[in-house]
Each structure stands twice: as C-alpha cells, then as structure tokens.
Specification:
single chain, mainly alpha, 2 domains, two-stranded antiparallel ribbon, two-stranded parallel sheet, 61% helix, 5% strand, globular
Length: 527
C-alpha cells in the first residue's frame, strides 16, 4: 500500500470512530431523556389517580344507588332515574378513560400498584360506546331486566285459574315440590312464554351493541371483552379441558338419576334418546337438582338432611337466618355486618311493589354501606344462599379501604369461590346439628352417602349448566352461532353437555335462555 493510501485509510478509520462515538453519545442522551420522561409521566399518572379516586367513588356510589332503587322498586320513575344516572356515569367514565390514555407507557412504570390500576382502567367496557349507541345499550339492558323481573303467568291449580303468579316464590315452589308431570310441563312452558320469548329481539340488539363496545375497547368481539379480566389467553380451552375431566363422572351420575326418574314417572314419560326432560328435576332451569333428593336418595329411609321443616317448626324468619349467618362469620373472627346493612338491605319480598328477586350482594363504594337484596324464603336452600351472599359482603368489607380499582375479586370467579366455600361449610350434617337444625344425628356410612348425593345434586349437576350458559354466549358474540339460530344452539348445548331435553318442541320464536336471570341481566356465569 502506498503512503497516500495509508493516510487515506487512517483518515477513514478516524471518521468511522467519530461517527460511532457520536452515535453512542446520542443514544445515551436519548436513553437518559426517555428515562427522565418516563419518570415524569409516572409521577403525573400517580397524581392523576389520586385526584380521580374520590371522583370515581362518587360516580360508582351514585350509579349503585340508582340501580338499587330500580331493582327494589321497579317503576317508570326509578327506571327514568336509572337511565339518566347511567348516561351520566358512562359519560364521566369515558372522560376519565380518555384522560388515562395519555399514560401510554404505563407498562414500563416501576410502581407495580400504579401499573395494575392503570391496566384495569384502560378497559372501559360498554361505556366506550358513542353516546347514541350507549343510550341504546342501556335502554335495551334495562328493558330486558324489567321484562324478566315483571313476568307473571296464569295456571289452573286445583281446579281454579290463578293469575299473576311470579317466579319467586310461586313458580319456584311448584317446580321444587310438585311431582305432577303435566303441571310441571305447563309451568315450564308458561314461564318461558312470559319471560324469555319477549326478550329475543332485544337480545339481538344487545349482541350488536356489545360487539361495538368490544371493538371500542380494542377487542374483536364481546366474548373477548368479557374474558379480559381472567388474564388467561387460553381460558376457553382450560375450561373445556376441566369439563372433559369431569364429564365421565357426570355421565354416570346422569344415568343413575335418569334411571330413578324413569322408575318414578314410568318409561313412557322418558325420551328414548337417553335425555332427562328439563321440567322434572326440581328447578325451573334444571341447573341444580337438589329438590328431587327424595326421589333418588340412596337410602330413603334414613333421616332427611333437608332441615326446611325444622326451620319452620322453630319459627325461623329471614331476619333470623341472616343473624345466624352473621354469627357464623363473627365466630370465625370476621367483621360483623355494619348498621347500614341491617337498616338498608332488602331481605324479604315486599308485597306492595315489583322487585328483582334474584339474590345479590351490593357494595356502595363508600366504605360503610353494604347490602343484600333477596326474597328470602324459610328453607334450607335459602339458608345456604344467605351464607353465600354474606360471604360476598365479607369480601367487600375486607377490601373496602383499597383503591377503587382493587375493590373487586382477584378474578371474576374469586368472589363466588369465597361465597361457596362458606356456604358448603354451613350445609354439612355436623354443622346443621351444631346449630340445632338436625336432631339425633349419628354419622354413619348411609347418611354420608345420602349427604354426598345431596351435594352431587346441587354441585355436580350444576357444572355443565354453568359452563354452557357462557359457552352459548361466547359463540353468539363471536359469530360462531347465528343470531337466527339462538334457540337451536341453546338446546344443542343442553342436549350435548347436560343430557337435558325440552318437554315440548321448541323453535326460533322461543328464547329459552332468556328465561334465566343472568341472560337478560348480562351477568357472566362461568365464574
């Protein structure tokens, strides 16, 4: 290489080193600048959350109050107030949601609690809809729930025409206690004509608007929006896997129950396809079968584990049932129900107004007001439900001082797990004996098997129904099932998963899923 070429090569080398040095320096400056900007943004986000927390509490409290008033007194005035309050609530929530979007780097924040709160607030739900669509969605949802909660039927009972019969307690009592095959079939049909069928066209609009809301939140369809809180990408597959594990046991259980019912009602009453008619399992939706225990008990001569008659004989009232539950929790060292609970809860069905009877627990987001709404009947089933709902209230009390975004279950199923854990503890023969509701109880193998059968009728029978309630909706929301074949799809799942068939032929003018509270009330069920 000539001297001139050597000099030129050295000059190029120095130039390249200078470029690299400048580039590294610029990158370091950019990294430092980005880190500083991120620190500033994180501090702003923390300040923003501290400012909006009282606002969110006020918004949620007002919304729950308006919803409570409508649910405990269904009338046009309370409906109008709820619609107005919901519109205001959605508008305010949407403003906050848009403001939060400026904290676009929240996943890189150091404060884990701050990251978690912003992650939850980043999904708005149906309030993300445009104002007109939001109003339509609220109107459709409210109308569906009103139709369901106001539905009544007329029946011929003991030679007399009786009208204005309501689901709770009239129809529920008939389904639980009657063994008249034809009467039960008529009750089953009339309830679906009155509650589900009028909701069908509204539910189509609900799906359309719900999917719009999902897109606004960055999801494909409403099922994706519903499954977001589970934080599990393969959630549907996991649930299906669990069902497949349980299914062989359920199939054997189903065969045993069908055999017992075939003996009771006669072979001519049972379908030849191996299914069980939906109306003879002691429950309006065949979701749990505990009310037919005496027909299928392994040892029918053994003492009954249903303490309903004992409760009546001991002059139990709804108030006493809730007091017993409160004592159960305080004996565990948990928090007693606050004064607001006893003053404001609706624990008996009013006689002077329409209400939503479906049992539910309520948090009013002010750290002191927690209530239960329930049309309590004096029987064992409702005693267990009381403890379940009180379990929800205990959970509310435990996290009442958390930031508002953390005042919910760890996932959508956690609340139900807490409630059922406590309810199952209460229903054991030993506990019932302890509280003087089960007398002369001596534990033996036959009583244990009877108890296990009772639990299977309530819990094992429920599992496929609990699954298909949402599986059916997931398919509708995602478009896998057509809105024009909603009822056919519903019965395909009931046949294939539950082994249950309708007592009469159904068609697409029917909307049998809508006769179950959680469908018109838009409550996810897989929890």
């Amino acid at each position: 290489m000539t001297p001139e070429r050597k000099i030129l090569a050295i000059e190029w080398l120095f130039a390249l080193m200078l470029v690299i040095s400048c580039s590294q320096g610029s990158e370091s400056l950019n990294n430092a600048s980005n880190a500083a900007n991120l620190t500033v943004e994180e501090a702003e986000a923390k300040h923003f959350l501290s400012e909006i927390t009282p606002r969110l509490e006020t918004l949620n409290s007002a919304q729950v109050e308006a919803t409570w008033k409508f649910n405990t007194d269904i009338n046009t005035v309370n409906e109008a107030k709820l619609l107005h309050q919901t519109a205001e609530y959605n508008k305010e929530q949407k403003v906050i949601w848009k403001q939060i979007q400026r904290f676009s780097h929240y996943k890189q924040y150091k404060d884990l609690r701050l990251k978690r709160q912003l992650e939850k607030l980043s999904v708005l739900g149906t309030a993300a809809l445009d104002p007109k669509d939001s109003e339509k969605f609220v109107n459709v949802s409210t109308e569906m729930e009103k139709i369901y909660s106001s539905a009544t039927v007329c029946l011929h009972l003991n030679g007399t025409q009786k009208c204005n019969l309501e689901l709770d307690p009239d129809l529920n009592n008939l389904m639980a206690k009657s063994r008249d095959f034809d009467l039960l079939r008529n009750v089953w049909i009339q309830w679906r004509n009155s509650s589900g069928r009028p909701i069908r066209s509204l539910y189509k609009k609900y799906i359309e608007l719900g999917n719009k809301a999902a897109v606004k939140n960055g999801f494909k369809t409403l099922d994706d929006l519903w499954l977001f809180p589970w934080e599990t990408s393969d959630f549907k597959q996991q649930v299906e896997h669990l069902w497949q594990e349980i299914k062989p046991y359920y199939v054997k259980f189903h065969a045993f129950i069908r055999m017992k019912l075939r003996k009771y009602y006669g072979a001519s009453r049972m379908p030849t396809d191996g299914t069980i008619p939906a109306h003879i399992l002691g429950n309006m939706w065949a979701q749990s079968w505990g009310n037919i225990f005496e027909l299928v008990a392994p040892f029918p001569t053994k003492k009954s584990l249903d303490v309903s008659d004992t409760m009546v004989a001991q002059n139990y009232t709804p108030q006493r049932m809730f007091q017993l539950s409160d004592k159960f929790f305080t004996d565990l060292g948990l928090i007693p129900m606050p004064g607001e609970f006893w003053r404001e809860s609706m624990i008996s069905k009013p006689t002077n107004r329409k209400v939503v009877c479906h049992a539910s627990a309520w948090d009013f987001y002010n750290r002191k007001d927690f209530r239960i709404k329930m049309c309590t009947n004096v029987n064992m089933e409702d005693l267990i439900t009381v403890h379940h709902e009180m379990g929800h209230i205990q959970y509310y009390l435990q996290y009442k001082d958390q930031p508002i975004t953390f005042r919910e279950g760890a996932n959508p199923g956690f609340h139900e797990a807490v409630g059922d854990l406590l309810a199952l503890s209460v229903s054991t023969p030993r506990h019932l004996a302890k509280i003087n509701l089960l007398h002369d109880y001596v534990e033996d193998k036959e009583i244990t098997l009877n108890y296990q059968m009772q639990m299977a009728l309530q819990k094992l029978a429920f599992l496929p129904f609990g699954y298909l309630m949402d599986l059916w909706r997931w398919d509708l929301f995602s478009g896998k099932t057509s809105k024009e074949t909603m009822n056919r799809s519903w019965w395909q799942y009931r046949l294939s998963l539950q082994g249950i068939s309708p007592p009469v032929r159904r068609n697409e003018t029917d909307f049998d899923s809508g006769s179950k509270f959680h469908i018109p009330a838009s409550v996810e069920y897989i929890r």
